Recover the amino acids of this structure.
């Protein structure tokens, strides 16, 4: 039998992102052993029962030294502390990657906490997810055909980047590369802003006395626009704060767009409204998610 590409993978956070990573590597016969850490013993036990983990970690110092790969699949706000915990115990050949939705802050945390091990950290962001979270939401095919963005550091060796790229490709992902700054600017516009708007609309309705009546008449348009408001509040709090500069810029651009539409409505400018809708429709109709 051919040995798996990764003999031992250690995962911090065995929910949707980390759990799916483990299951995908298992499906590809690419991992020998998966060891997990998390905040809840009950969650870790569930992940073990679901076949995500082979076992629960005995302690950071006992597990990461001989690991081929360490996956940080926690909210981005927790990563600095995790990096500080693992840094003294990382083996010379252990690579570290993550699944965070922001990158500049994660890279800054890595530089502050990994020290001489910084070259072993290859940041990543899988563009895949679901509204459900936890180990029970993990899927072996979550990353199949989905994009994963690597944001390599100048210190990373070509071999290290190639190896982490291979791990994600074994999960079925299509891997591309951006700088951390490019990544955060792009995703502020196409991911973080839409989530912020979705949460804001549902929050607005939640505070109204007639919210039950309003929701009783809501249909597919409301469902589609607000689907992402069912996402993890903790995760999205961390994402928005971590990428707040780029997100604030996008929010100001969006507010200006809303102001233009408000003026068109107030003045009864049918031509302006239709032109806006037509431009948006043409772009949306021509876009296909790959």
């Amino acid at each position: 039998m051919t040995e798996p590409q990764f003999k031992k993978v250690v995962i911090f956070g065995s929910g949707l992102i980390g759990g799916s990573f483990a299951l995908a590597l298992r499906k590809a016969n690419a991992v020998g052993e998966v060891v997990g850490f998390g905040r809840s013993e009950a969650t870790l036990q569930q992940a073990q029962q679901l076949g995500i983990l082979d076992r629960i970690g005995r302690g950071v110092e006992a597990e990461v030294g001989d690991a081929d790969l360490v996956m940080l699949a926690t909210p981005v706000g927790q990563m600095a502390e995790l990096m500080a915990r693992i840094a003294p115990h990382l083996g010379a050949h252990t690579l570290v990657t993550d699944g965070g939705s922001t990158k500049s802050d994660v890279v800054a945390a890595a530089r502050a906490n990994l020290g001489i091990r910084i070259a072993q950290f290859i940041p990543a962001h899988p563009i895949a997810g679901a509204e459900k979270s936890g180990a029970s939401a993990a899927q072996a095919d979550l990353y199949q055909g989905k994009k994963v963005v690597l944001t390599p550091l100048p210190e990373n060796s070509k071999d290290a980047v190639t190896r982490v790229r291979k791990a994600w490709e074994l999960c079925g992902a299509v891997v591309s590369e951006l700088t951390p700054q490019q990544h955060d600017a792009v995703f502020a516009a196409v991911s973080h802003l839409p989530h912020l708007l979705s949460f804001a609309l549902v929050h607005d309705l939640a505070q109204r006395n007639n919210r039950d009546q309003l929701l009783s008449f809501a249909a597919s348009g409301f469902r589609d626009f607000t689907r992402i408001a069912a996402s993890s509040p903790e995760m999205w709090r961390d994402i928005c704060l971590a990428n707040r500069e780029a997100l604030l810029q996008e929010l100001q651009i969006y507010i200006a767009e809303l102001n233009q539409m408000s003026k068109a409505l107030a003045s009864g400018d049918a031509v302006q409204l239709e032109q806006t809708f037509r431009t948006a429709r043409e772009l949306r109709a021509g876009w296909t998610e790959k």
